[in-house]
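[job 0412] stage=complex_fold ligand=thiamine diphosphate status=START
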Amino acid sequence: MNGAESLVRTLLASNVDVCFANPGTSEMHFVAALDRVPGMRCVLGLFEGVVTGAADGYARMAGRPASTLLHLGPGLTNGMANLHNARKARSSIVNIVGEHASDHLQYESPLRSDVPGAAALASDWWRVGGAGHGIARDAADAVTAARSQDGQIATLILPADTAWSPGGEPVAAAEPPALARAPAEGMRRAVEALRSGRRCALLVTGLALEEAGLPVVARLAGAGIRVMASQSNRRVARGRGRLVVPRVPFAVDQGVAWLAGLEVLILAGSHPPAAFFGYPGKPRMLTPAGCEIQALVEPGGDVLHALAWLADELGLPGMARPVPAAEAPTLPADGRLDADNVMQTMAAMLPEHAILCDESVSSGRSLFRFTDGAAPHDYLQITGGAIGSGLPMATGASVACPDRKVVCFEGDGSGMYTLQALWTQARERLDVVTIILANRSYRILQGELKGVGIDQPGEQAHRMLDLVGPELDWVALARGQGVDAVAVDTVAGLADAFRGACARRGPFLIEARIP
Ligand SMILES: Cc1ncc(C[n+]2csc(CCOP(=O)(O)OP(=O)(O)O)c2C)c(N)n1
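[job 0412] stage=complex_fold status=DONE, emitting structure tokens
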């Protein structure tokens, strides 16, 4: 057994049985091992951003890591933006990055680069494999690291000679250490604040917003405690019957207004709510000046334990009252499509237990308003602000949950970063419906330009922010990759197209033409 085979067997023994891949020469022994060792589902992505974004979507829905296979420094850095998004989500990923043979690295060959330096950019754990531990131990450690602290990015750099040299016996990854619990001092301060009569809020994220976490959150919210969710979260259980946990608004002014008057913010697994960007003359933090910020439990810690403990300490009943019913969305009147009626139509038609992947950018402002009372679903969003996340995320989510319909809202600008994900969806016959919000612009950036004080953009600025001349033909772009597609510009057209897409399995794309 060579090192590559030992590595694959170790991944399988550690319950990592999907590999999103874009290989090259340095990974050929690994590729060959995939043939010799049955059990690994290999999914080819035609750009590394697809590979890493799919691994992110997979981890969010499967609750365990997939592996990726990436080609040296350039392959890893091509996949960096979605690794960054995944890291912000605390998704669990094991990257295997090929590297030159150890005795070849001394030469200035074309693909030689600083792979550990690149790995450090978006990994919580990384190691050059084969140096002392044996590749099986390295791989097992990588899996344990990826599963630690509620999800991390682990990158194992695999020198080619390590892959072709004899490998040791495969091992199974050790269980990750238990999640860190809230310290008693933090708990005491939180209880004291909540009992003090000061205006307090609890900011939650992570597992608190998933199906198993919401009842714990409901105990607190049901007792009148103001509970809010971070602006971006890994996965949120939403829709009919589920507690609505309002999110900190995206826009600075809205966020500041929303948090105005707050005296204590208690963080449960979340970071303090900073503005997305620093703008001239605007605050950097959304909380009011003087607001006390307390950490009940750190990011990556045991949020569910902390919240349940807090509810117990406050003497709250074990079961919350039933969640107040949100209004069920209805189909809007027929007419020309716009961003809001797309969201309303889709909310009204969302299939039960769909997975909703959201990279709608400026078009999705009303999404939550309409989907609060939609059919129960899981909501996945871009978490690190690096666009190009939606189509790959939908791809990976569908690999993790083949029996659930995946619906992906995708901006036309963001979609172009990683549109090759459609080819993977076609090849793997994934049940994903993509709705392209075709407004032919980087609409959000047009607003951002105003936000930094430019009211009269010139010709150059216009040309940097619109997507015309030529217009993107998403139906052709999809069909050219094996995904059937249709363009619509009315509510009735969208409803018809989506009904058709739901009546069948497999990928489908709807270009929703909006102003
Ligand atoms: C990797 C990366 N590059 C560039 C940006 C800057 N950026 C933010 S939004 C955006 C355009 C998004 O356009 P689209 O998806 O069409 O959504 P719209 O703004 O039209 O709603 C760009 C280029 C980014 N966030 N991430």
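The pocket of thiamine diphosphate is lined by residues 81, 361-363, 385-387, 411-414, 439, 441-445 (CB under 6 Å).
[job 0412] exit 0
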